[in-house]
Amino acid sequence: MEKNFLTAGLIVLFTSAVFGFGGPDQDFNVPHTVIDVSKKQAVDQTVKPATKIDAYIYAGDKYFKAGNFNAALKYYFYVTKIAPTNVKAWKKTAFCYYQLKKHNYAYYCFQKVLKYDPADKDAADFMDFYKTIMSNSASVREKREMFDPLWRSAICPGFGQFYNKQYLKGVLYGAAFFGALGLTFYEASDEKAKYSKYVTANENQEIAFDEAQSSWNSALIWGIIAGVAYGVNVYDACANYNSDEARGLSVEIRGKSVYLAASMGW
Amino acid sequence: MKKYIAFLAAIILITGCTALNRVNPTDPKAGNYEGLHYTGSIGSFTALSDIKAQEPNTVWCTDSAANKIYSFMQDGDQNFALYGIFTGPTGICADASYFYVVDMDTAYHNLKRFNPANPTDTSVLQPPLFASIALKKCALYGTSIYLTDSNTVYVFDTTTNAMTGVSWQVSPAPGTSITDIKTDAGGNVIVADSNSNDILVYSPTGILTSSFQYSFNIQGFALCGSYLYIPGSGGLHKINYPALTEAQVLANYGQGNGKVDAPGPCDAFADGTILVGDVTTIKVFAP
After folding, report:
1. Which helix (H) or strand (E) holds A100?
2. Which of B9, B28, B256 sits opposite A201 (nearest CB)?
3. Residue B124, in any domain of the structure
4. A109, A140, A171 — which closes off a domain?
5. N or C: which end of chain A has fewer CB within 10 A?
6. Do B26 and A228 touch (CB under 8 A)?
7. What number of C-beta contacts closer than 8 Å exist between A and B?
8. B170, B233, B168, B162: which is closest to B199 by C-alpha?
9. Quick check: helix, strand or coil at residue B41?
10. Which residues of A39-71 are buried (b: 16+ CB within 10 A; e: fewer)?
11. Mutation choice for A interface testing from B1, B5, B8, B20 by most A CBs within 10 A
């Protein structure tokens, strides 16, 4: 049932993953931007770079320095189309995407950089960042031990659910158990006082006894409820030790995109 | 699986909801029930001086300070209160036709007779009797009323409205102070003496047949079946009768009104209900 609720929140670590559900290939294979030729001309006329590629790179740099990454991206990306092996263009494109937080595009671009220049430090660092995420992804996918949530729930009802990242259930089990336990102690204490009163009473014994009996029954019922809550809590912690929620955040690489998703357990 | 869990929960619930142990000796449902328990009180008095239980369910009592006599039902409902004609009533007894009040009015009408159906009818008042005797208590057996002053028992015949001539001094005199008198089923007269703390049993003709001395002041006692009940500072003493040996001490347990902690007037119904005077009220103990 948790599955209905679990995947309710898909948190995209890399915002681009959300916006780029159409797939990065489409964008890279078919240029998604139109270069404003008049601007290119203007740049060419003022800077007069040695080559046309340098001119575009130079123009992109200007926008990049000004913080206009979208504009800079158009120039850098255009270079990658006309010179697919230009490491510098790929790298700058990657940085633009990085600044625009479109990390899946940036990831793809850094892959290109490393393809053409395996010694590029920036690209290598960026890829390390991804490898760390993927490593974490692998670790969260590792099979968990049932004993871990079990002993936690055995010690403190609800703790095992928290360990399984089923927070709402943890709160409910904890509240149910500790609430029932508190009422059990309260009623037991009340019963003790009332029974003591009954034992020493020499009048209205029946009323005193009925009051003590009532408190005893209440204590018993709350005790049973606490016991049942405890047992179900332990069982639930064990049963869900390897659930999707227990694995928590999942990082997925789909094609050339990296997605980080989280499910909310109930 | 759910069935097993539900079954287990039901078993726990059923076996768990067991009754607490009844261990109070004054609880009639307890295994260690001592045989008598407090059920409530009757009346409100200034100075209760005598109680008489008349079968099937009438309680007569006198208030020597308020100068009143009362008639109650056994459940505590008051039948009537009579006042304005007493100067310190100290004893009361009743038969099927009349009730008799021993009054401190030594000059006149110190034994007063009334019709319970019309208690304000003074035409049935006993003629002047015993003008020189300060009567204290009375007990009825058949047509005889046994009357006492501080140390002598007198016998009055209700058919002739005259003294029978039988009387005897209660030993050990002098210093005797009779506080209560009762008759048993055989007509024997039982007298309580608060000076010597004695229970003295006499034949109908005044021959002492047995006696027993207690360690506490005796202000009254009740005879019920084969037991005497004597209120004292340590509780309600249950005495084998006529053996006059102590069988048990009751009404001395726990906290509340169900405790007898002072000697006072006392009487009993045949069903075992004991009425114990406590100065301002009558405590009722039932089996």
Report:
1. none
2. B256
3. yes
4. A140
5. N
6. no
7. 62
8. B170
9. strand
10. ebeebeeeeeeeeebebbbbbbebbbeeeebeb
11. B20
- Look-up of token digits 């000076």: B195
Which CATH number covers residue A113? 1.25.40.10
Contact B24 A209 (CB under 8 A): yes
Q: Is residue B23 part of a domain?
A: no
Residues A181 and A135 in one domain: no
CATH label of the domain that carries residue B261 = 2.120.10.30
**CB of A203 less than 8 A from some CB of B:** yes
Name chain B contacts of A198, Cβ cutoff 8 Å. 24, 27
Out of A122, A140, A158, pick the residue that ends a domain. Answer: A140
Write out chain B's pLDDT in tens, 287 residues.
Answer: 667 777 776 776 666 666 788 888 989 888 899 888 999 999 899 989 999 999 899 999 999 889 999 999 998 898 888 888 888 888 999 988 888 888 877 666 578 888 888 877 766 556 556 666 778 889 999 888 998 888 888 888 888 887 887 888 887 655 678 889 999 988 899 999 888 888 889 998 888 888 888 877 888 999 998 999 999 888 999 989 888 888 888 888 888 888 888 888 999 999 999 999 988 899 999 99
Q: Side chain identity at A257, as an amino acid letter?
A: S
Tell me the nearest-neighbour CA distance from A114 into chain B, angstroms: 58
Inside any domain, residue B173? yes
Count of domains for chain B? 1
Please, what is the Cα angle at B225 between B224 and B231, to 5 degrees?
A: 30
Give A 145-184 residues with CB within 8 A of chain B.
none
Number of domains in chain A: 2
Same domain, A165 and A97: no
